[in-house]
Amino acid sequence: MAKxxxxxxxxxxxxxxxxxxxxxxxxxxxTWRYNVIVIIFGFLFIALGARAVQLQIVDNDYLQSQGxxxxxxxxxxxxxxxxxxxxxxxxxxxxxxxDSVWMHPATILRxxxxxxxxxxxxxxxxTPAKLLDKAEKRKGREFxxxxxxxxxxxxxxxxxxxxxGINKVREYKRYYPAGxxxxxxxxxxxxxxxxxxxxxxxxxxxxxxxxxxxxxLRDKVGHVVEYVEQLSRVRHGDDIVLSIDARIQYLAYRHLxxxxxKHNATSASxxxxxxxxxxxxxxxSMPDFNPNDRSELxxxxxRNRSITDSFEPGSxxxxxxxAMAMQAGVVNSDTIIDTEKGFLYIGRSRINDTKPxxxxxxxxxxxxxxxxxxxxIAMMMEPRDLYDTYRNLGFGQTNKLKLPGEQxxxxxxxxxxxxxxxxxxxxxxxxxxxxxxLARAYQALANHGVLLPVSMHPTTExxxxxxxxxxxxxxxxxxxxxxxxxxxxxxxKARVDHYRVGGKTGTAHRVVNxxxxxxxxxxxxxxxxxxxDPEIALVVSVNDPKGIDYYGGLVAAPVFSEVMAGALRLRGxxxxxxxxxxxxxxxxxxxxxxxxxxxxxxxxxxxx
Length: 608
Prior knowledge:
single chain, alpha+beta, Penicillin-binding protein 2a (Domain 2)
């Protein structure tokens, strides 16, 4: 009897009636199916191999470029902007390192459900909604600034939050240690460290340098994974040294600002030159602005009025008229000039003095600032002679400084001059100059008649100048200008204790809409010191002072005195006289009503 088995019977596919145990069934292997499977897998392996060859050998450059396009970037290394210093090496414009925070918009949007961004937005001083809105508007970009020019401490605090898609980049911010004291000279840069005004604009190419370029590998959220290759080295900006003396600049700024406030003037400017080199020692304009505070920048305050604003110089050009006549030999310091009874008609136009002076010498014409005397001296010569003298001194042309906005003023070259034009031009009407041009003219008077080019940078050797007057003439004119600041002159307030000073006042009616204003003036003082060996030429011009004090001898001369006194001492220039303290203003400077009310508009009328 056979043993029992638990094998289930199956039916044979060939003979369903025959039942056999499973263990006894032999399933034949189908060789053709096996071969088909092998062939299919073989083709797949061949295809994969071919694809690998294509990707890694045939199309390698293309794929590499595609990968690079997604992750390889050229990163700029910002250069440090060159430093600007004064003549003594004092930094007056420097670049400080700062950090700017940026984001990868796609990452920020992708993870907004995971991060509230509340703490991040708080450090950036914005709302989370504004942050997300900015990311949404720029979601196609890979680099978007969130906030620029942050302190490294704040930037590190932001990065410490470890928010994906938030990074920082190193930049540089311009800082001006002297603030408004140097504002008009230096100008300022924009947030990208590009010069916008002043010397920052004029010397932008030299100061800004050139950024370095480095290839880096970044991950999908912008982090630098690897520095691949340095394409070009960074070239930092060149340093620039100015001829400005920061000590004199601050002194001039303080006193000019005080004068503007005291007399409620509209504006003012001041220029100090080194007489022997032509270097600019100080250049100040009012109203001022602080280049460190961009929130209060006003375009009306950007103007460097020392070179952009021109005015009729008034009586300050009378010494030039006298020097011209003496150079030509038509007068000398003792020649007598009849100033009539204090007024003179030329055609229908009337020229006035502040009071009758009668017959006076040429020296007294300067000392008493006689308009009639200056006009008569000028009319002893041809109008062309006076025009050529002004032109030779630089009037009607720029000083070729790189400072933006420099104006050349007005010096009309007429084919035929009317007598009244000839007369008024002798005492500063009918032409216009800026403060720098007038300072340069006085530099020539003080430099024994040699006019030097103006420089904003220290000079290593005396520049070549052009002789305008002989030294004999200018020495005599210097003595006349010294008398002008005496008790009998128009500007005793310009004197400097222990130094011999020479200078000339000017009080010219302002022109508004083509007409002279009866009650609006330019108050000017131009001079130099010390007389024995002139070193510094200084011009102060105050525009539209209000009140009873509007004469150059009362408004501009005191500023000249204070600034000149400090400048001489700061430069170590030895005293050349022992002078008494400056007296109170002479009563003869006061008149009962504006002189312009006595004059036709055509004639103008300097009051000093």
